[in-house]
Amino acid sequence: MSFLSKSLDRIKPSPTMAVTAKAAELRAAGKDVIGLGAGEPDFDTPDNIKDAAIEAIKAGDTKYTKVDGTPAVKAAIIEKFKRENGLSFEPNQITVNSGGKHTIYNTLMATLNPGDEVVIPTPYWVSYPDMTLLAGGTPVFVETSIDTNFKMTPEALEAAITPKTKWLIFNSPSNPSGAAYTAEEIKALGEVIKRHEHVWVFADDIYEHIVYEGFEFTTFAAAVPEVAHRTLTMNGVAKAYAMTGWRIGYAAGDPALIKAMAKVQSQSTSNPCSISQAATVEALMGPQDYLKDRAAVFQERRDLVVKMLNEAEGIECPTPEGAFYVYPSIAGCIGKKTPSGKTIETDEDFVTYILEDYGVAAVHGEAFGLSPHFRVSYATSNEALIEACTRIQTACSKLN
Ligand code: PLP
Description:
- There is one protein chain.
- The chain is of the alpha/beta class.
- It has two domains: 6-44 and 290-395, Alpha-Beta Complex (Aspartate Aminotransferase, domain 1), CATH 3.90.1150.10; 63-285, Type I PLP-dependent aspartate aminotransferase-like (Major domain) (Aspartate Aminotransferase, domain 2, 3-Layer(aba) Sandwich).
- Helix content is 40%, strand content 12%.
- It has helices at residues 15-28, 47-58, 71-85, 100-111, 127-134, 154-160, 183-195, 220-223, 255-266, 274-285, 289-310, 347-358, 382-397, and strands at 34-35, 94-97, 117-121, 138-142, 165-171, 200-204, 231-236, 249-252, 325-326, 360-361, 363-364, 374-377.
- The strands form three sheets. It has a seven-stranded mixed β-sheet, sandwiched between helices.
- Helix 5 links the parallel strand 3 and strand 4 (138-142).
- Helix 4 crosses helix 9 (255-266).
- The radius of gyration is 21 Å and the shape is globular.
- The chain starts with 14 loop residues before the first helix and ends with a helix.
- Bound molecules: pyridoxal-5'-phosphate.
């Protein structure tokens, strides 16, 4: 339709949201579908956070706030960065937005000019390339593989940097692979960034609290203090506090960049929801002990899913350090035929097969830039996971 903006031709709708919608549609039509597509915890938002929001409504905290966050939420975020990451910030270094996705969007809109390059390791979270394109930039992909546990090497990073590079988007633990970088691994990447003074780092730490077996999370700016002044550290309440619907993300970094992001926000959404900001103060300042308990539940599910998927013929599933995703290879299924005679040529064919014939909704690897894989979100009950993995095992055993 010629009425629509040409910039839309550069992007596609979020494929992860499309899978969730398709699963819901099939379910509404009466089909028994298990959804492994959604990137949100199945836990509820803790009561103390809900209560803080109710109190905020009663207290009349229902009006516009400062564009990029109330003084109270900025103070809570500053405290969080000090307590958990050893990073110190002033209020003019903090921005609060309507979800982590919005933080990334503001960042790219505020910084990219046509031709600017954004280095994005594969497999990547689906929105990074599309938001880069929408903002007029060019994504430059750094390929990783199952053999390096989906981690980018310093050599590969070095090779991707050009005079036009503006950002490295660094997401650890990763959506979709679950891979998390150790402090040593980040330092090695930091050596490369140190040499290229025009390159900034966008650290997407949204899965910080979902790490396993004593893995110690380190954020980029803490591991490489020499580049902290050109690092934007992003986080949010969605995944850690089961607050996906509340839409609060935030970031900390250079004051001039933060101010530019507020300019973008002031002409689009204005402030993030006043009530959600009050709830975020409680999330960040209230009890934190349940974060470890929830991570332990996720770890049990990860172990279950990794074991069962590795038992499926043609699937190889590494054990990730964090997030709530696994990213198995289906190389062993490619070229095989389904009982109805269709050949599995791509990972999209595979996820279509398991959805249509076995009622399991997952997202194909092509959407995350690394094939042939698929992403399983295990943020659902053990029961549902056992049933889904059993169906995948059956689906694989029927291929020949
Ligand atoms: N970053 C990553 C890697 C994600 O997986 C997500 C959500 O799926 C986000 C950022 C954005 O989260 P939200 O906008 O819900 O805060």
